[in-house]
Write a structure and sequence with these properties.
single chain, 114 residues, alpha/beta, Rossmann fold
Length: 114
């Protein structure tokens, strides 16, 4: 895409792997800061790329909230209480940039390996 579209100004990586690939391609082409990259998903590498200037924005899902909701719904279903289970559950997201990356909210949304 970078070779085919020389005046490209931005890339949105719609998932973990496309976002990492976009950031790496921009770094390899020495276009950090020229081609803006927005990542969807927030692994530690995306945050490292954000800090290094290869990525401009990281959109983090809230996996802990998703897991909690899933377990809560499973417990309700097993106990026969289906009334509180919603068909659609907005789990939210956190937008992380260089200005807020060190805030507690952003840090809690980063996918960290233990």
């Amino acid at each position: 895409m970078l070779q085919r579209t020389p005046d490209l100004t931005g890339i949105f990586g719609a998932n973990l792997f496309s976002a990492e690939g976009a950031a790496q391609a921009v770094k390899n082409a020495n276009l950090s800061g020229t081609v803006r990259v927005a990542n969807f998903d927030a692994p530690e590498q995306a945050i490292a790329d954000l800090r290094a200037g290869a990525v401009d924005l990281v959109i983090a899902q809230k996996p802990a909230d998703m897991g909690t909701t899933g377990v809560d719904y499973a417990v309700m279903a097993v106990s026969g209480d289906m009334t509180g289970i919603q068909k659609r559950v907005p789990t939210g997201y956190v937008v992380i940039d260089r200005d807020n990356v060190d805030t507690p909210e952003a840090q809690a949304a980063i996918y960290k390996s233990q």
